Amino acid sequence: MCVPGQPGAAAPGSAGEAVAALRGALGWLAGADATALSTAEQAECALLSGPAGLASRLRTTRLTGPAASISLPLDCGTATDTIPAHMRRAA
Question: Is pTM, for the whole model, over 0.85?
């Protein structure tokens, strides 16, 4: 778990370093088995996720321009002519 002031958890020196760290973390999370995460790790992910999550709140209140827009679902599936039920409910 990452805790402020934790040894070895130095703040990024630039925006590029911060983006690289986020990409690495998101890549790890994308490949992680959610059932293998501890309860604390699942709670931390839930805190950041979704339209009411911390990441969304920071993005919409701290950024400007297109980056400050609402979160949109990523299109990572196979192209089809139908909209899956879970996506229809999301709108």
Answer: no
When computed from its CA atoms, the radius of gyration of the chain, rounded to whole angstroms, is 16
Alpha-carbon distances, residue 67 vs 11, 19, 32, 70 (angstroms):
22, 14, 26, 8
Taking a C-beta distance cutoff of 8 angstroms, is the pair 59, 67 a contact?
yes
- Alpha-carbon distance 4 to 58, whole Å? 18
Residue matched to tokens 């996720």: 49
The token duo for 77 is: 């599936």
pLDDT tens per residue, range 40-51: 888 887 777 777
Short-list 41, 36, 72, 71, CA closest to 56: 71
List the one residue out of 68, 66, 65 whose CA is nearest residue 57: 68
